[in-house]
Amino acid sequence: xKTFLTFLITTFQILIAVVPSALxxxxxxxxxxxxxxxxxxxxxxxxxxxSVLVISHVFNNGFFTLIKKDADVTLVVKMTAEDWALEGWExxx
Length: 93
What we know:
Elements: H1 2-34, H2 37-61, E1 64-70, E2 73-79, H3 81-90
Antiparallel strand pairs: 1-2
């Protein structure tokens, strides 16, 4: 049950990160075809704002969820950007 719940949470987090960027990418050809440059700039601004909000939320709240399986035990670890940096520093990356 825990694994399924973790899968749902991770899927939801990925959707939150991908949907604003996908909407922006899909809207670009439509706006260029209609030659509506102001709407294009507005959607680009909104898309960039959404992307910045999502990225800052991911790095501040530690959305990176890792599932480690050792001896039939599932451990869910949430790592923040600071943890990733420290781990990389310790491993010589």
